[in-house]
Amino acid sequence: MSTNNRRELEKYNRRNDILNAAQNLFFSQRFENVSLNEIAKKVHLGRSTIYHYFENKEELFFAIVLRGALILHKLVQEEVDSSIEKLTAFRSE
């Protein structure tokens, strides 16, 4: 693996670690009660590192919501595709 690929993977993993920590905190506490300092502590990073990935707490929250929406979209799409296959198979019989 090249150095560039390794760095990109590290950035991707760090971003996901931040998202996961923030999601856990937002779900266990209210959005208003969570600070970027708490999120940074949870992932053992400095607060300034969080700002490297997200402009503010609202952007971080939106990224979590977007990630959830994409997961939901994928699940719905799989169900639709499965249903279409079943209907097509039923019609062919």
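The above is record 1. Record 2 follows with the same two-line structure.
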Amino acid sequence: MGLTIDTSILVDFFTKKHAERYEKSRELLKVAEGKSVYCPKLISAEILGVLVRYNIKLANLGYGFVLKNFNLIGEDDIFDAVLEICKNTGSRAVDGYFIATAKLTNSALITNDRTMANNAKKAGIEAYYLIEEFDEAIEKLKKL
């Protein structure tokens, strides 16, 4: 079993915009170091698209972090599962990619997006809304 991390965790970590969210994301990434972390390949575009709004150096840093630390699941391997997730939960398409990744890799999903966490739970995925379920998420991660 592994872990799927949503883009929102990385955005909170790299932007440091909200102190509490930054600290929780930082601690999560620290505990996740060396563990199997899965993400849809789409995270590469998402992290670049969000962080470039701050500056290009930050965007490149985030992108490099993703490539170095995460196992990326390609479109061909995930798309049918994304369609099924969206149909069964009504989730946003981009959220469907992360939920499907967690499903296909038998991973727990950790996100700072309440809607994504709720839709993942609807899909039968173990999911944590880090902002409110920090202790539970960290405990789960330490057991991996």
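The chain has a mean pLDDT of 96.
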